[in-house]
Every structure is written in C-alpha cells, then in structure tokens.
C-alpha cells in the first residue's frame, strides 16, 4: 500500500491515545493492538515486501500483510496505559501508591467508554497492583477521588468511570444539597465544608446567600427531631467568619433553639465544636438553674470533648465533690461507657486523681471483657492504654493495699482478655509498682512451665490458623451481627441480639483457650528424640503378651492424636503408660476405655524416619 493511501485512512479526530493507522503514526517501535492477538510492538515495516513484522505477546516476529495491518490494527499513543505498562511499569507502580487519582485518569483517557472499574482491575492486576492488595487500593483510591470530586465513579462495575470537566465547588454542592430532599445531616455536612473554605472567598455575596438559605430552611415547618440548634450555630459561625455586619436587633437568643428532647440534645452536642459545646452547656446550666441530673446523664454518654466541657462546668461551679461522688458510683456499678472510661484514664489530672484506684481497674477489666471484640477500635484504645507503659497502672495501684494488688495480679493471670505478651507486660508494670507480687507471678509461671505442651509444628500452625480465623473473620462478623441485631430495638425481647451475644461468649472463650494453648506450646519436629527409651516422637514396636500379636504405635505431640493412623498423643493414657520404658520391658498399659493389657516392648524407632506406622 502506498503512502498516499495511508494518508486517506483518517484517525479519530483529536484522539491521541488510540488511533487507526496513518502515515504519521505507523512507525517502527510503536505499540499497536489487534482484536485477537492483543498488544504488540511494530518491529519492522517492509514496504518492498508489502508486510510488517510485529512482536505480539505469545507471537514474536509475527508477519502481517500491510493491507491487513492497516485495517485490523489500532495504534496506541506512548501515553496509553497499556504502553506504559510495557515500558514504564515501575513508574506506574510508584504512581499507584503516590497518586492513584492520576493513574485512574490515564486509564479513563486510554479506554474512554470502556473505562469501567471491572476493566481497571483487569488492566492493573497483577503487574501494577497485586491481586491481594487490589481491594484495599481501590477503596482507598475511591476515598481520595471523592475528596477531589474530579472523577465520577459509577455505582456498577460495568459502567464507565468519567472525568469531570470541572470539580463542583462546595458552595454549589451546598446549594444543591439544600434544595434536595436529603436528610438534615447531609446539609449540615455541606455547611461544615463551606466553613473550611470560606476564608478563600473574595467577597461576602456567597456567604450572604448561604446565610439566607439557612434562614429560609429554619422558617420551614419542621419535625421535632430537626437539628435546629446545629443550623443556627453554623449560621453564626459563617457570619463571623465572613465578617458579615448584622443589625443588633437581628441577634437571636440561642437558648430558644436548644432541643428539649434528651436524644436530640445529646446528638447535637456531640456534633458541635468544643467552643459551641461549652456555650450551649453554660446556657443550659444557667437558664435551667443547674440541672445536675441532666448533665450527669449527658456525661454517661459523652465523648472526650463533651466530658471535658461538662467537668469544667462542675469544677467552676464548685461542685467537684458531687462530680467525684457520681463518678465513683458509676465506677462501682460498672456503668461507664468504653469511650468515657478511656477519657477518664487518659486525663489523669489532679481533679480526677481520687478516682484512680483498684475499683477503677476492675471497671476497666469488666468493660474490656464486655466490649472487646464487639466494639473494636474503641475498646482497643482502652486496652492499649492499660497494657502499654506503667503510668496508668502506677496511678491505679499506688494507693491500693498489698492484698488488693495481689487480687488484681491473680485476676490478670486468669483473665482471658489479655494476649500473652500484653499480659506479661502488664504484670511487669504491676511488679514495678509493688515488687512484693513477683513471687506470686513466678509461682504461677512455674505452674505454667509444668503445663508446657510438646506439639508438632504442623499442629501448632493449625491452632494458629484457627485463632487467626477467629480474630480476623468470625469475631468481627459476630460483632456486625450484634450491631445489626441491636438496631432492631428493645434488647429484652430481641432474640437475634441474645443469640449473637451468646455466640460472642463462645467465640471469645475459644479465643482465650487457643491463646492459652499456644502460649504453653513448645513445637518440635521430633528429630532429636532419644530412642533408648520411649519418648515423645518415637514409634514403639510391641507384642501383646496374652495373644502374642505384634503391633506398633507412634507417640507424638499433645495435638497429634490420630488412632486410625496408629498415632496417639503422649498425654493419652496409653502414651503415659509407655513413656520412659525401654526395649524388653513388659508393661501394663492403660487403655482409653479404662481397661488394661500387658505388652512387651520389642523395639523403639524414630517416628521421623518412618512417619507411617
């Protein structure tokens, strides 16, 4: 085919990434794609022989007639994602970690209407992103894209990803949200975004429009649950931040907007900034003539920020003793939430110092046993605070009697909550505070030493796999079931909730058992076993004295029992009867059913030499 004919075959206009062949792009070294053979690189164009040689994957140096090449190939730009994979793989791998948004844009420009999430995974895995990392990478990338709002990700995997010409600003998003039927919470979120960017606005027009929109919203008929307080405070913050002048007669009484219903009041307070929280709380405190019980109720369900403000009000009102009395009662009744308990332990200031005692330790332990595994991160933070460092333990135990510290030590030793290494760290912290309990801990470890389990490596790995599945899969799934069942309402009649909580107890008990077993295990491959006497890891060849019948049995680790294959645990009655005996001994052995039989040991060999008995 002549050069003039090549010129006649036009490419898609303004499409640089994927083109049909023309005289400008049909060159050696260029990548192309064929519907059947996939990606290839043009190795040589031989016009004298009317052919082109292309290195396809799986078809190196493949020869095509020029006529066929012109009609069947599509040339790819050097910026096409498939080309970058071939020539700049390390660059793409780095880009996927540092700028996932950019790599998705390259993908969309490369595949256009075929740029679906499904195809993205097929193109990037496994060369750019390994298959086991894909899900985590994709979820993280979607969060980044959501923040930038420059790319639209479809709800279905089979629909195309689209690059937006211009990311909508937060003002436009707010106006759109305000005019929609979305719930108030979404509108509040949009207002918080405006607050973050309002300093960058050059004039007050936008801010005035936002304030007018909020006022219009507040004048509409509302349900009792509508978070009016949030909108009023946000309106004030926007007015202050945008420096909008308002006549004095337009100043509003904030107290009028404070919800009467406890649930709505609590949810609003938890959303507010610390400054606005304090402002609302002081209004309530002064206008309602020091509503102590209401503030105690709020404290029970408070997060750290709200707890700070409530405690500040009690302290400045001279009611510290009343506050400490209430805290002590909550501690004794084990009624503190995991979040409030974490806050209390984290903020060990002079005011709260009297609360640090053995009662608080038992409250922490109770909450951990109740919540760990069902609440996840909140309980883990409290767990970490207790088991790392000595500050909290020193505060809790410094005023406790030796008997109380000994009781706490025994509780820690027996508790299923603590992982083995964390338990040792915690016990070490207790010893630093009261060295007298060292003997108690050492005595317990001596007992643990006597209970060491000899196990095979394979059986130990099996136990670890079971524990890992519990921790990573079964317990989290159960936690979700509990949360789902709790959403049904009244827990007293909630059978799904009760069943899920019962299963939680079973799972946590099994977790504790496995952790205890693994901590006591000493794994071996039985290669260094002494065969002069019966030991763990030997095969005993024996004769039944009564029937003169020869037989053999392998005595292996604590978790290796498999009688059908002639393997028993050294802890079994039969194994215990044989341990320590040598060839020629006649032994009365105990059977699992309680009966006995007399055998003569003929020979002892290593199990590892012939693992099939």
Automatic annotation (TrEMBL):
Domain Transcription elongation factor GreA/GreB N-terminal residue range list: 455-522
GO molecular function, one term: DNA binding
Gene Ontology biological-process entries: DNA-templated transcription elongation; regulation of DNA-templated transcription elongation
Annotated Gene3D superfamilies: Transcription elongation factor, GreA/GreB, C-terminal domain, Transcription elongation factor, GreA/GreB, N-terminal domain
Domain of life: Bacteria
Annotated ranges, domain Transcription elongation factor GreA/GreB C-terminal: 531-605
InterPro entries per record: GreA/GreB_C_sf, Tscrpt_elong_fac_GreA/B, Tscrpt_elong_fac_GreA/B_C, Tscrpt_elong_fac_GreA/B_fam, Tscrpt_elong_fac_GreA/B_N, Tscrpt_elong_fac_GreA/B_N_sf
Listed Pfam families: GreA_GreB (PF01272), GreA_GreB_N (PF03449)
Keywords: DNA-binding, Elongation factor, Protein biosynthesis, Transcription, Transcription regulation
Keyword Transmembrane: no
Entry's family note: Belongs to the GreA/GreB family.
Task performed by this protein: Necessary for efficient RNA polymerase transcription elongation past template-encoded arresting sites. The arresting sites in DNA have the property of trapping a certain fraction of elongating RNA polymerases that pass through, resulting in locked ternary complexes. Cleavage of the nascent transcript by cleavage factors such as GreA or GreB allows the resumption of elongation from the new 3'terminus. GreA releases sequences of 2 to 3 nucleotides.
Protein name, entry field: Transcription elongation factor GreA
Organism whose genome encodes this protein: Methylacidiphilum fumariolicum (strain SolV)
Lineage of origin: Bacteria, Pseudomonadati, Verrucomicrobiota, Methylacidiphilae, Methylacidiphilales
Name of the encoding gene: greA
